[in-house]
Amino acid sequence: MAEKKPVEVRREGAITRVVLSRPQARNALNLPMCHGLAEAFAGIDRDADIRAVLVEGEGPVFCAGADLKERKGHDAAWIRQRRLASFAAYAAIERCTRPVIALVQGPTVGSGGEIAMSCDFIVAASDASFRFPEAHWGTVGATQRLQRVIGVSRAKELLFTAREMLAGEAYALGMVARLVEPSRLKEEGMALALRIAEAPPLSMALTKQSIDLGSRTDLESGIRVELAAIERVLADNGWKSGIDRFLQSVGTNGSEAGEARTV
């Protein structure tokens, strides 16, 4: 019997699910899973038919952090290479040109939070929680993404104390974009992915790229990034069909007609 892969890629039409699949280890991140995530997202970027990605954990836990058991018996050089592999996995998620949604349930610890924060946004079950205990484990981690998501002082408080942050607090701080009942997590995630998939792929990719690039610079430079993206859309001519679809929707029902009047 073939050994189960630590990362499974499941295609559902234009939507791809990337599943952390080590439920017996609470989906703890090990070296094969790092490689599996990098390979999965490299494949997604090569497939033009994929329009949105869901990242989720198999079982009741999204990811219980790094698998510390695999480090036993290894030297510092191996540990360093293992950490570089995790950074490469997070970067592969962040570089994905398609919108990527993390579906988080149960305890999410350390590296699990890094995976979730590498996605474009997080949808969390109301029973989810986040904890970053790296400093208390004698190592360093989550010092960069976490502060960019919730701010420097809040990140320091979480990292220094290693306390658990419940989903409601994570939502209030902006780390979580949506909170849902645990039983509806997968359903809500798929509904969001399908809604995203309705948009023209070029405009969606350029919207994501413009936000990501703009977040790293000042407003004036960000506007130039957006103008460059607009020029690409105009050169593609896809905007014409978008206007046609919009005009066809006007007046089809009360809500869309109301939206049209505000444009």
Tell me about this structure.
It is built from eleven helices and nine strands. It is α/β, with parallel strands linked by helices and 263 residues long. The chain has a six-stranded mixed beta sheet, with helices on both faces. Strands 5-7-8 form a three-stranded mixed beta sheet. The termini are far apart.
Q: Could you outline the blueprint of secondary structure elements for this entry?
A:
Layout: E1 7-12, E2 15-20, H1 31-46, E3 52-57, H2 76-95, E4 100-104, E5 107-109, H3 111-118, E6 121-125, E7 129-131, H4 145-150, H5 152-161, E8 165-166, H6 167-172, E9 178-180, H7 185-197, H8 201-214, H9 219-236, H10 238-249, H11 254-262
Helix pairs in contact: 1-2, 2-3, 8-9
Annotation, overall tally of beta strands: 9
Shape: globular
Number of helices: 11
Taking all Cα atoms into account, the compactness measure Rg is 20 Å
Distance between the termini: 58 Å
Describe the strand arrangement of the main beta sheet, using strand numbers. Answer: 1-2-3-4-6-9
**Element-level helix/strand string:** EEHEHEEHEEHHEHEHHHHH
* Average predicted confidence as pLDDT: 91
Largest sheet: 6 strands, mixed
Q: Which structural category do the helix and sheet elements fall into?
A: alpha/beta
Residue share in helices? 40-55%
Strand residue content? 5-15%
Model regions low in confidence, pLDDT < 50 over at least 5 residues: 254-263
